[in-house]
Every structure is written in structure tokens, then in C-alpha cells.
Specification:
By secondary structure, the protein is of the alpha/beta class. It contains ten helices and eleven strands. It has a domain of 74 residues. α4 packs across α5 and α7 runs parallel beside α8.
């Protein structure tokens, strides 16, 4: 499985003219844990969603190449994209409160994902849903399967979302800020869970995050985005030795326990970064 993005641009028409959200992004992703970091509005989520062609109708998308394992995403018909979405690539959204259907039980939503991508009957889908809930380390999967989203904690809801995305046994998992709505302890649990699942299933992972230390420990490679462009790409283990001024600025703004800081640094932005 490999993903090729070459010179991707995503524009949106506005009352003030065309807004360039993604500008000339290029990257190649294989069966690895790949992180995309940057501020809100830097184009991280739009870049990842373009792989599944899950962009607003108003988006104007252009690319020299945009392929998923040889499939031309720009020219593929909707049936070809449906064969990729869910079945071969899953997307974990930021907040389970807005991603799960509030009038369906957790189990019913996972069963729906199972039956959409297989010939499983109702009973088999139910059994697989409970098994998937157990795989994401939910202690009482039968009880949770019968619970509605409002009856679940944030961490539990995110585990249900992960179970739903794992139902078709995808080759790629795109996690868009999967822990930002959770507290620090639950964040660590969810990330350990994702790490174990990705490793045991041999999946590729694209992790979108604001958290540089997290990405440096969790991913193999990292792309840093600023104002719609990739300004630096490097091994995650080498993130502390980043060269670009924007990446250095992000790192220097972080609090640290190793030495005292009376005041956190404020990033000085160079207009040349927009060039």
C-alpha cells in the first residue's frame, strides 16, 4: 500500500476571492506511521481527507498526482472510491460526540460498518462488533454494545470509533486529532491502543496532530505544515534537530520541566515562510 501526493492544491472561493488552503503539497506515504503537524488552518486535515476525496463540494482540487495504491483518486468514479473508503482506509474523527449517531447504540453502528463491507448476517455482525469492542480494550463489550453514545465517556466513545473503523480490516488508518477532546491520561491510553493495533495488524497510519512531542515518539516520519505548505519533512526521532524556522519556533514555544522558563516563547514569523 502506498500513497502518492504530488503538487496538491486545494482552493475555496470566498466573497473576497479565492482562498488557498493547501498550496503545492507533495508527500509519499507507505506502510508506516506518518505524522502531519502544524497549527489549526495549516491544511493538515484537508490534505489527509483529499486521499479519500472527502472534501466539501466547494473545494477546487488540483494535483499532478494523487493516488491510493495505484488508484487515481482525482479521476476514480464513486464506486471505486467507495471500495477505498472504509474498506481499505478508515478515518477516525476528532470528537466522538459529533461522529457517532446519537440515536443508534454503539454496537449497532459497528454492526452497520461490518455488514456494509462484508456478507455477514445480523448475528455474525453482532458477534464481530462485540469482538472488536474487546480488541479496543473495552472491559464489558456486551454492555457497551447496547449503550448509546451519550452514555459513554469521551475515551469510551473514541474506542467505539476506532472499533468501527477497524471493522473492514483496513490497510490505512487516518487519525485526525484523535485525542484532542480527551484528558491527558485517556490520551495516552488511546495512543497506546492505536500503536498496538497498527503494529499487530500491519496497517499504515496517518496521525494529524498539534502535539509535536507526541508525534516525535509515536510516528516514523513527520511532515510539518505551515499556511497550506509542507515546510519540512524529517524522521520523527530527529524532530528536536529540525532546521526550519517554523518548526524550531513550535518546539521553542513548548513548556519544559528540564529547565525553568519564566515566560513561554512567542513565535516570530518570517514572511519568507509564505513564499
Amino acid at each position: 500500500m502506498d500513497i502518492l501526493i504530488d503538487n496538491l492544491t486545494i482552493d475555496f472561493p470566498t466573497a473576497q476571492g479565492v482562498s488557498q488552503a493547501v498550496r503545492g503539497v507533495s508527500m509519499k506515504i507507505g506502510r508506516e506511521k506518518f505524522g502531519i503537524v502544524g497549527e489549526s488552518g495549516s491544511g493538515k486535515s484537508l490534505t489527509a481527507r483529499s486521499i479519500l476525496r472527502l472534501l466539501p463540494d466547494s473545494a477546487i482540487v488540483r494535483a499532478d498526482a494523487l493516488t491510493f495504491d495505484g488508484v487515481d483518486v482525482m479521476r476514480a468514479d464513486e464506486s471505486a472510491m467507495r471500495a477505498i473508503r472504509g474498506r481499505r482506509a478508515g478515518l477516525i474523527m476528532q470528537d466522538p460526540k459529533f461522529s457517532l449517531n446519537p440515536v443508534m447504540t454503539a454496537g449497532a453502528q459497528i454492526e452497520e460498518a461490518v455488514r456494509a463491507h462484508s456478507k455477514a448476517g445480523r448475528r455474525e455482525a453482532r458477534e464481530k462488533a462485540i469482538d472488536l469492542l474487546a480488541q479496543v480494550q473495552i472491559r464489558d463489550p456486551k454492555r457497551v454494545a447496547d449503550a448509546y453514545p451519550h452514555e459513554l465517556s469521551g475515551g469510551m466513545g473514541q474506542r467505539v470509533m476506532i472499533a468501527m473503523m477497524l471493522a473492514p480490516d483496513p490497510e490505512l488508518l487516518i487519525a485526525d486529532e484523535p485525542t484532542s477532546a480527551l484528558d491527558a491520561t485517556v490520551q495516552a491510553e488511546i495512543l497506546r491502543l492505536l500503536d498496538n493495533l497498527v503494529s499487530s495488524r500491519g496497517m499504515a497510519l496517518i496521525l494529524i496532530s498539534h502535539d509535536l512531542p507526541l508525534v516525535s515518539h509515536f510516528c516514523d516520519r513527520v511532515a510539518v505544515m505551515y499556511a497550506g505548505r509542507v515546510v519540512e519533512e524529517l524522521k520523527a526521532a530527529d524532530l528536536a534537530q529540525a532546521k526550519h524556522g517554523y518548526t524550531r519556533g513550535l518546539l521553542e514555544c513548548l513548556p519544559t520541566l528540564s529547565h525553568e522558563k519564566r515566560r513561554l516563547n512567542v513565535m516570530a514569523r518570517d514572511p519568507a515562510w509564505l513564499a
